[in-house]
Amino acid sequence: MKRLLFTLLSLGLLLQSPLLRAAGDMLTAPEAQAAVEAGKITLIDIRTPPEWRQTGVAKGALRINMHHPQGAQGFMAEVLQKVGGDKSAPIGLICRTGNRTTQVQKYLEAQGFTRVYNVKEGMAGSAAGPGWLRRGLPVEACARC
Fold first, then answer.
1. Domain ranges of the chain
2. Are 60 and 142 in contact (CB under 8 A)?
3. Which of 14, 26, 116, 140 has the highest count of CB atoms within 10 angstroms of its CB?
4. pLDDT per residue over 31-56, tens digit each?
């Protein structure tokens, strides 16, 4: 519980920084799917294991729970490992409705990642679009998440 609180607090404090107020780059769900299929982006689903089990995960997405056991730094380190240590590698972030991805996008950019894209409509949809699921884009079951 302390680590979860630390992660949320860390991300909240980062949002107060004037450097993080600018909106980052966004992708629609179909754009993200096409980029994953073409091998041009690493798509990361930052939701929790119960959410992954409930809806499945976007096909080709990696799963990294933003509530990482080692806090914000552990999350960032795992993302960095998934992109081979390259902070300029293109990364797409997806969550349920785009709220958490907005926070995490800003956090990763503050840590020096330069090509972080937000699938703002998320899996379930938001004001940014209908979402991965309603668009009928492919998902992979995650029974052992």
1. 2-140
2. no
3. 116
4. 999 999 999 999 999 999 999 999 99
Which is more confident, 128 or 12? 128
Could you tell me where the beta strands, DSSP code E, fall in 1-145? 25-26, 42-45, 57-58, 62-63, 91-94, 116-118, 139-140
Q: Mind listing the pLDDT tens digit for each residue in 84-132?
A: 999 999 999 999 999 999 999 999 999 999 999 999 999 999 999 999 9
Please tell me what DSSP assigns to residue 18: G
Buried b / exposed e along 130-140 (16+ C-beta atoms within 10 A)? ebbbeeeeebe
2-140: CATH architecture: 3-Layer(aba) Sandwich (3.40)
Amino acid (1-letter code) at residue 127: A
Q: Can you say how many angstroms the Cα of residue 82 is from the centroid of all Cα atoms in its chain?
A: 13
Give me the residues paired with residue 94 across strands.
45
Tokens found for residue 140: 């992979």
HSE-up (13 A, CA, CB side) for residue 20: 20
Return the bridge partners of 117, or none.
Answer: 25, 92
